[in-house]
Amino acid sequence: MRILAFDTSAKAASVALSQDGKLISEFYLDSGFTHSETVLPMAKAVLDAARITPSDVDLFAVNCGPGSFTGLRIGIAAVKALGMSLDKPCAAVSTLEALAYNMQSSKGIICAAMDARCNQVYTAFFESDGINVTRICDDRAVSTDLLFEDIKKLFDERGEKIWLVGDGAALCYKKFGEEYVKTAPTQLVLGHASGTCIAAEKLYENGKTVSAAELVPNYLRLAQAEREKLQKEGKL
For residue 25, what is the enclosing H or E element? Predict the structure, then answer.
């Protein structure tokens, strides 16, 4: 089975192609250009390098959130277009789960953390046995203070430092200190679409794919403008 996966959830963007669990090609870009400019050329490059056409792909996957509101919409729009035009199934992948696969080969607890601003992070915990990655809790948006309490609790229970991945890793490491956490190697801190491929294959195996029309972003919280509007109206 061939999977073409997109990650446009953060500053860096990537597209990856896998076949039967093996990574075939991947394009990663952290250049400062907008994802709307780069994601489709990246997808074409990934497919061309493998001499594969979009119609040869069996499953299209995309990180649906949490993450940058605009970034998520760009990736989802691209996958919607491909899925609808080719009548292929899609996989709506958690950005945090895709991040956790960066540390798949390292045993221990993994904390995927994305900077949500305003002293908050999007986060979830996972555990890896060196081969398999298992989710411990649901994706959520929490304050860094609350996450620190959860980190300390897991540290006390397991007696080992927690791995940090995601663009919130540096923020958390600075706040929590090296006593409780350790960051992934530099090249593995940020998201890669290869992790999206792995998560998407798990969804496929469990019969949890969706149609292109069903793909929607999972922001986890309201946009700042929406929050401010509700606050003014006394509804928040």
Answer: strand 22-29
What's the Cα-to-Cα distance from 50 to each of 22, 147, 197, rounded to whole Å?
Answer: 13, 41, 16
Q: Which two structure tokens, joined as six digits, stand for 76?
A: 């989802």
CA distance 22 to 18: 5
Residues 82 and 90: their CA atoms lie apart, in Å, by 9
Domains of the chain, first to last: 2-96+191-220 (3.30.420.40), 103-189 (3.30.420.40)
Tokens representing 200 are: 């998407």
User: Please, which pLDDT band fits residue 116 given cuts at 50, 70 and 90?
Assistant: very high
Using DSSP's 3-state secondary structure scheme, residue 40 falls into: helix
- 151-166 per-position pLDDT tens digit: 999 999 999 999 999 9
| pLDDT range class, residue 103, cuts 50, 70, 90 | very high
Rounded Cα gap, residues 91 and 150, in angstroms: 30
Angle at 18 between CA 13 and CA 23, to 5 degrees: 85
Q: How far apart are CA 203 and CA 153, in angstroms?
A: 30
Query: What pTM was estimated for this model as a whole?
Result: 0.93
Task: Dump pLDDT digits (tens) for 172-222.
Answer: 999 998 999 999 999 999 999 999 999 999 999 999 999 999 999 999 976
Q: How far apart are CA 111 and CA 188, in angstroms?
A: 13
